[in-house]
Design goal:
Layout (H helix, E strand, L loop, with lengths): L13 H25 L4 H71 L7 E11 L5 E11 L6 E13 L2 E6 H4 L9 E4 L2 E9 L4 E12 L7 E6 H4 L2
Antiparallel strand pairs: 1-2, 2-6, 3-4, 3-5, 3-7, 7-8
């Protein structure tokens, strides 16, 4: 008796269906890869190119970090150089100021010991007028010296007056009239080599000073008195 085989259930079995689906997917992938190969593209080249770009990016980022470090270093050096320059410039300014002070001192003492004009006796070495803090307030500095005659002290007093225009009229004020209230108007001196004085002056309203008159009156025998006039603008600084 012949045997017969029968298919159970309608259509194809589950295994056959799975095999067909797999064959279709494999065929589709092969077709896709074939198309990419035909277009001169494959996944291996793409991965290699990506890795190349990533390596290049890493290298560029490293260069950026190095450049930032160099910039920071240069800025630090620049700040150090600037500070060093400022220190040197300040030291140079101080040195020049000290040299000028020394030169002024040398000229001052040379004027006492051996003046250019060869004169002797009492004289006005320096007179300066500077502006004060308040309006119409001034500071007067006077330096008296005894030139080439230092065997004894000279004594006396200073007579001061200031000439100018007051409301269009020529007017002269004495020291007492120009001093602040309760100031001592006496101006005596006693020295062997030199003596300096500082006096504060307050100019009357409307008064335009033009000339300072200084008379150094000697009370020491054989030492003559001295009288000098100075333009207000020349003495003012």
């Amino acid at each position: 008796m012949k045997s017969r085989s029968y298919m159970h259930g309608p259509g194809l079995s589950a295994g056959m269906r799975a095999a067909i689906v797999l064959a279709i997917l494999v065929g589709a992938y092969l077709i896709f890869e074939f198309g990419r190969i035909q277009a001169n593209y494959n996944i291996v080249d793409a991965v290699a190119e990506q890795q190349s770009y990533e390596s290049e990016i890493d290298g560029l980022e490293g260069q950026i970090v190095e450049l930032k470090q160099q910039i920071a270093l240069l800025e630090t050096h620049r700040e150090i150089d600037r500070e060093a320059y400022q220190v040197v410039e300040g030291d140079l300014t101080d040195l020049q100021r000290k040299i000028q002070e020394q030169q002024d001192a040398i000229a001052f003492y040379r004027g006492i010991v051996s003046p250019k004009d060869g004169g002797r006796g009492l004289r006005v070495q320096d007179l300066k007028v500077t502006r004060g803090v308040d309006e119409r307030h001034y500071n007067l500095r006077l330096v008296l010296v005894q030139v080439m005659q230092h065997d004894r002290s000279v004594k006396g007093e200073v007579d001061f007056s200031l000439e100018g225009m007051q409301d269009g009229v020529v007017t002269a004020y004495t020291l007492e009239q120009l001093l602040p209230a309760d100031s001592d108007s006496s101006w005596v001196f006693s020295f062997r080599y030199f003596q300096d004085f500082d006096r504060e002056l307050i100019l009357p309203d409307g008064f335009m000073p033009e000339k300072i008159n200084i008379e150094v009156v000697s009370r020491t025998k054989s030492i003559a008195s001295v009288k000098q006039s100075f333009d207000w603008l020349d003495g003012q600084s």
